[in-house]
């Protein structure tokens, strides 16, 4: 994944140092020297993390943090505040406004990289990754466990979802009936074969095109991508 970071500071030396360390660590880095430019770049570049100086010539870091947290499209953005202020009160205010971490100047560039890595790692652990499997007009959301066909939400049962997930995750692989029963219902034996056939029939109807789920006679089923 191309992780993008926006660094905002009115000191060009600090900008260059932080940008250099982060780029060396493999990140794509954008920079801004004032609040208005930063707000424009947040919209345009949609970064994965913001390193934000508290003292800026127009809008300060607190104002920008408030704006980010109030914006639905940006509200989850991780923010590290970078400032020369050492007063604990300032740090507390920043954290209460929504900053995730705080680095006081002067600092070591390696510390910034370490804090960035730690914050991005923590965000990944805290937030489940949304995975959507798309094949033509069929879209299966594995986080919400929902199915869309041509953009329309289609109601499916939990068993149908599990069967379709197994098929779409392993496109062109032929599942035996027993394998699909185990995937969809947690068990598989010959007596449940007709139940599986019914689930497959229902899925074909809901998808609207039976050719996606192909019957492999004498074996089982496969999803044809």
Characterization of the model:
The strands form three sheets. The protein has a five-stranded parallel sheet with strand order 2-1-3-4-5, sandwiched between helices. Strands 6-7-8-9 form a four-stranded antiparallel sheet, covered by helices on one side. A three-stranded antiparallel sheet has the order 10-12-11. It folds into two domains: 4-126, Rossmann fold (3-Layer(aba) Sandwich); 132-223, Winged helix-like DNA-binding domain superfamily/Winged helix DNA-binding domain (Arc Repressor Mutant, subunit A, Orthogonal Bundle). Helix 1 packs across helix 5 (109-126), helix 6 (158-169) crosses helix 7 and helix 6 (158-169) packs across helix 8 (193-207). It is 44% helix and 22% strand. By secondary structure, the protein is of the alpha/beta class. The two termini are 25 Å apart. The chain is built from eight helices and twelve strands.
In short:
With 225 residues, this protein is an alpha/beta fold.
SSE blueprint and pairings:
Blueprint: E1 4-8, H1 12-24, E2 28-32, H2 35-45, E3 49-53, H3 61-70, E4 79-83, H4 88-97, E5 101-104, H5 109-126, E6 132-135, E7 138-141, E8 146-149, E9 152-154, H6 158-169, E10 175-176, H7 177-185, H8 193-207, E11 213-216, E12 220-223
Parallel strand pairs: 1-2, 1-3, 3-4, 4-5
Antiparallel strand pairs: 6-7, 7-8, 8-9, 10-12, 11-12
Helix pairs in contact: 1-5, 6-7, 6-8
């Amino acid at each position: 994944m191309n992780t993008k970071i926006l660094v905002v500071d009115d000191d060009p030396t600090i900008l260059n140092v932080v940008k250099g360390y982060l780029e060396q660590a493999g990140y794509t880095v954008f920079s801004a020297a004032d609040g208005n430019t930063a707000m424009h770049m947040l919209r345009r570049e949609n970064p994965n993390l913001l390193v934000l100086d508290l003292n800026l010539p127009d809008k300060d870091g607190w104002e920008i943090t408030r704006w980010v947290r109030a914006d639905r499209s940006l509200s989850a953005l991780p923010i590290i505040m970078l400032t020369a202020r050492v007063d604990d009160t300032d740090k507390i205010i920043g954290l209460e406004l929504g900053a995730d971490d705080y680095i006081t100047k002067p600092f070591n560039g390696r510390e910034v990289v370490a804090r960035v890595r730690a914050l991005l790692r923590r965000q990944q652990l805290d937030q489940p990754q949304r995975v959507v499997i798309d094949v033509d007009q069929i879209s299966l959301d594995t986080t919400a466990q929902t199915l869309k066909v041509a953009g329309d939400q289609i109601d499916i049962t939990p068993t149908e979802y599990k069967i379709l997930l197994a098929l779409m995750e392993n496109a062109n692989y032929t599942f035996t009936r027993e394998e699909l029963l185990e995937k969809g219902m947690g068990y598989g034996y010959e007596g449940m074969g007709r139940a599986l056939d019914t689930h497959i029939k229902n899925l074909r109807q809901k998808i609207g095109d039976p050719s996606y789920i192909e019957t492999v006679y004498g074996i089982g089923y496969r999803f044809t991508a």
